[in-house]
Amino acid sequence: MTTHTIRLTAAQAMVRWLSVQMNEDGERFIEGVWAIFGHGNVAGIGEALHGIGDKLPTWRGQNEQTMAHAAIAYAKQRRRRKAMAVTSSIGPGATNMVTAAALAHVNRLPVLLIPGDIFANRRPDPVLQQIEDFDDGTVSANDCFRPVSRYFDRIMRPEHLLTALPRALRVLTDPANCGPATLAFCQDVQSEAWDWPVAFFEPKVWRIRRPEADAAEVEEAIRMIREAKAPAIISGGGVLYSGAEQVLADFARKHDIAFVETQAGKGANPARDDLNFGSPGVTGSDCANRLCGKADLVIGVGTRFQDFTTGSWTLFDNDACRLLSINLHGYDASKHGAVGVVGDAKSTLERISLGLGDYRAPAPDKASRLAWLETVKSVTAAPVDDQANMLPSDAQVIGAVQRVATDDTVAMCAAGTMPGALQVLWQSARDGYHMEYGYSCMGYEVAGSMGIRLADRSKEVICFVGDGSYMMANSELATAVMMRVPFTVVLTDNRGYGCINRLQLECGGAEFNNMYKDSNIEEQPEIDFVAHAASMGAYAEKAASIADLEARIVAARGRNKPTVIVIDTEAVSGTGAGGHWWDVVVPQTGGPERLQEARAHYNANRELQRLIN
């Protein structure tokens, strides 16, 4: 039997193989490659990407970390049905991506990272930017990716790709173990030619599995729900990735069980659903936290029970409360003594609902939900006449955007004050919320907005970003201008890190090194964010008031490039509503007098924590 082969470099083979990996919708699973070239990837991967052209598009970014953020946001918006790759040079280009890898790992999101690596032949050692381990000749800077990758491989021979590439795609398409895959590609190997089996490049369809839960676990879940007197559902990000939004809503309606949504799960179902009680935990609504506090059975669906969701495990204060966790991964399903049902959210809910028959739980307190919605209206209302000369709060900024939002609006954010404020106050339409809060990475916002818009051109993306996070990473604004990817940035300027300044005070500390005014500086900076954004080609302007902000957001619709709207805000107020305790350790001694009060409050809440691990 004759084996048909084709002679290609390793890099040419990699991009050709990636270009024919398909999803179930008949689309490329890897939509394209973000690239900043340098020594380590320009000669090998760069040549290969140029040669393949539009069969696997290449995009140029400004920073390796933010390119990867755009790729991750794209995958999140596409519900993990598609992904992107990111390639960098050796050295700082590679390590710039480590933070993004951690972000993807925490959030269980697929991204293929292809950093250039050292020479496999070791002839020019130490090559420029090479990290040398005095005791281990196999280590390079790319070993930093190991703890933040779901799959890691170093390509030291061309034929390594025959196994490494399918293994990487298996991870990217695995609903239980999804996360970043890193292929550290030795730079000399990229350019080496090899005779590849033609069959290796046949198109392949990657199907996203729906693992069925064990029958005994489903029966146990049915029994627990039937016995519960006050059940509540926590809807997590797994609901979105399973496509279980409507199934969860139908389950809640049929069995009269109210649900709350985590940061990752918010927007799975619209806020207007009268069984949607908002968000739980640290940045939760009053009605959601009351619901969870009284529950004797908390049914987690696709959530990993992160500390913000659970109020650092003080939220579930009913002594009879038990946890039932539906999750694809046994690790998440068994957290804190939960009874786990390991399986796909959509199919598992359908099976449990069938087994429950016409069971209905005692009616939830819908009056508390209505009271909460009135509270939200109050704190997000536009300023009245006697506040005309006062800077608006973040809650009032959210209210301004909310009043002009449509069912196609996606509110997005990642770090600072706004993630908590949006979770507790934003009334989302279905698929109208995109929050990176697993890693809460400053600098995700601008690049992430571009990724969302690339994933779905029908959406109006409104990015909430504070001045501190904008200063952290804003350069992909120029990329979005070049690519004509429109979105709207609402930049709230409170002249420092207002969120952490409030946390510092709540922990009994003094104002120090967060706001510019409390930092070791010679001059208070007066940053012209409008001029800065305009210099990168964005349409930039400053809103004079909340009413002006509303008008400018509406006016931004229809533009073919990003719009940046700057508005000055005050830094003192929080959301003004909702909330719960968060475990941030308070010093046992030292500091100002208020430290003792903060420590007493901390100790009291520590006593309420659930101790099962």
Q: How would you describe this structure to a colleague?
A:
The chain is of the alpha/beta class. The chain has 3 domains: about 200 residues, Thiamin diphosphate (ThDP)-binding fold, Pyr/PP domains (Rossmann fold), CATH 3.40.50.970; about 150 residues, Rossmann fold (3-Layer(aba) Sandwich), CATH 3.40.50; about 190 residues, Thiamin diphosphate (ThDP)-binding fold, Pyr/PP domains (Rossmann fold, 3-Layer(aba) Sandwich), CATH 3.40.50.970. About 35% of the residues lie in helices and about 15% in strands. The protein contains 24 helices and 21 strands. The strands form 5 sheets. A 6-stranded parallel β-sheet has the order 4-3-5-6-8-7, with helices on both faces. It has a 6-stranded parallel β-sheet with strand order 17-16-18-19-21-20, with helices on both faces. A 5-stranded parallel β-sheet has the order 12-11-13-14-15, with helices on both faces. Helix 23 links the parallel strand 20 and strand 21. Helix 3 runs parallel beside helix 5. The longest helix has 15 residues. The protein is globular. The model has no long low-confidence stretch (mean pLDDT about 95).
Overall mean pLDDT stands at 95
CATH homolog superfamily of the largest domain: Thiamin diphosphate (ThDP)-binding fold, Pyr/PP domains
Q: What is the global morphology? A: globular
What is the straight-line distance between the termini?
A: 58 Å
Strand content: 15-25%
| Count of helical stretches | 24
Using the coordinates above, name the CATH class of the largest domain.
Answer: Alpha Beta
Name the helicity range.
25-40%
- Tell me the CATH architecture of the largest domain: 3-Layer(aba) Sandwich
Structural class: alpha/beta
Strand order of the largest sheet: 4-3-5-6-8-7
List the uncertain runs: none
Major pleated sheet: 6 strands, parallel
Q: Could you tell me the radius of gyration in angstroms? A: 25 Å
DSSP summary, beta strand count: 21
CATH topology-level fold name of the largest domain? Rossmann fold
Instruction: Supply the number of structural domains.
Output: 3
Pfam families: TPP_enzyme_C, TPP_enzyme_M, TPP_enzyme_N
Domain Thiamine pyrophosphate enzyme TPP-binding: 416-567
GO molecular function: 3D-(3,5/4)-trihydroxycyclohexane-1,2-dione hydrolase activity
Domain Thiamine pyrophosphate enzyme central: 218-351
